[in-house]
Amino acid sequence: MKYDLVFEGGGAKGMAFVGALREFEAQGHTYGRLLGTSAGAITATLLAAGFDAAEMLAALNEKEAGQPVFASFMGAPRELDAEVLQQSATRALLRQLDLPLLPAFIEERVDDRIVKMLNSQPRLRHIFSFIEYGGWFSAQNFLTWLKVKLNSGLYRGAPRRFGGLSLAEFYQVTHVELSLVASDTAAHRLLVLNHRTAPDCPVLWAVRMSMNIPFLWQEVLWQAEWGQYRDQDISGHSVVDGGMLSNFPVELFVSELPVITAIMGPKTNGKLLGFLIDETLPVAGAVVVTKQTVKQFSAGSLHTIQRIEQLLDTMMQAHDKLVMEAFEEFVVRLPAQGYGTTEFDMSAERKNLLVTAGEQQMRQYNAQQRTADERVSFSLAGVGTAAVRVWADKIAQRLLR
Q1: Would residue 256 be called left, alpha or beta, if left means φ above 0 and alpha means ψ between -120 and 50 degrees?
Q2: What residues are paired with 333 via a beta bridge?
Q3: Dihedral in degrees, nearest 10, Cα atoms 102, 108, 110, 112
Q4: In Å, what is the CA distance from 260 to each residue of 32, 57, 196, 264?
């Protein structure tokens, strides 16, 4: 059976998707359109590139210098060159501060040393990165990793060469309807990035923008060479995680409004399945790790990551609680209780338990459904389904205003 798939955002908790997809494949199901936010955008993109669950699991188990490769996504930002430092906002601010009784030429030297110190020390570079680029980490390692993945292995018998493609080029090769959700903070609106809305946007950067948790990773500014978004120039706009506006945008697949289908593409066979990360469901065998005890990486005792995670979890869940209630029939809930959004360095044991929980929950969801011909679909008549469509239309219109 073919399904349109929706993947929620959830940071490191998104590893549960791999287990769910392993069971999804075992059931013999295939996918039509793919839609993802944040961690879900990564999963959706790898699926569109032909990755199966086994390849994704191998990627989850990769290590670098003895540590999970995903932990490197939260490494120290790289040093900046001297010219960039001189033009930085931090350096400009220091120029405006006048130290009494200190000659100007000495003050200049002191200011230079302060900026160089911030740039040279890994821990201090986090502060510099936060001031200059709005994020504690750079995510450059993530871009490198994803490009390697999209250029590795085989796709339909030929080597993958997707790392340098635009969304339009990616579609021309794969013919997969892939849409990634991001948030334009300058225009205060949701972006649905695909080959229709942003054909010239690189696949790599579309994923990077969708997973760009604000304050955690450096902001991404839309580049002029990425073309227009829905025939509008958004060059210079700051684009962040789609979860800020819709972490689980299932309504975009439910709505049948012409303006929505023009963006999302035609429906396949009417089946829909949403993968949602549920922090209220326990992971069998896993120790519940509170946010206070999750390792803070290089942020140390500042607990910066903890504060960011708590803030974002609150913002992202507000909209989606309404959505989950409306579209419950289409949702499989994947356990993630006690797992952190930024727990990218989780042990192999915790990772395997999370993946297994996702697999088991997908199996349970399937067992609870009726026979294939009786499953809830868009073609099912009835007052309940009509009400769901109306609700979906309202939400989708609001999101894409």
Answers
A1: alpha
A2: 276
A3: 170
A4: 17, 33, 12, 6
Q: Residue 32: CA atoms inside 13 Å, Cβ hemisphere, count?
A: 16
Q: What is the pLDDT at residue 378? A: 41
Q: Confirm if 257 and 394 have CB atoms less than 8 A apart.
A: no
Whole-number pLDDT of residue 301: 37
Q: What are the tens digits of pLDDT across the range 348-399?
A: 999 999 999 999 999 999 888 754 444 444 443 333 466 666 667 766 766 6
180 vs 75, more confident: 180
Work out the average pLDDT over 47-72: 92
Query: Are the CB atoms for 338 and 287 separated by under 8 Å?
Result: yes
Structure tokens at 351: 């990772």
Distance, in Å, from the CA atom of 48 to the CA atom of 111, rounded to the nearest integer, reads 49
Q: Is residue 354 within 8 Å of residue 70, measured between CB atoms?
A: no
What's the chain's Rg over C-alpha atoms? 22
Q: What is the DSSP string of 202-253?
A: BHHHHHHHHT--TEEE--EEPPGGG--BTTB--TT-EEEEGGGT-SS-THHH
- For residue 304, give the nearest of 375, 214, 368 by alpha carbon: 214
Task: State how far the Cα of 215 lies from the Cα of 398, in Å rounded to an integer.
Answer: 26
- Given a contact cutoff of 8 angstroms between Cβ atoms, the answer to whether 20 and 39 are in contact is no
β-partners of residue 277 are 334
CB 113 within 8 A of CB 194: no
Residues 6 or more apart whose Cβ sits within 8 Å of residue 126: 76, 77, 136, 137, 298, 299, 304
Q: What is the distance in angstroms between the CA of the first residue and the CA of the last residue of the chain?
A: 33
CB-based contact 214:359 (threshold 8 Å): no
175 confidence band (pLDDT: 50, 70, 90): very high
What average pLDDT does this structure show over 238-248?
88
Higher pLDDT, 247 or 275: 275
In degrees and rounded to multiples of 5, residue 298 shows phi and psi of -85, 0
Residues above pLDDT 90, as percent of the chain: 48
CA angle 264/268/270 to nearest 5° reads 100
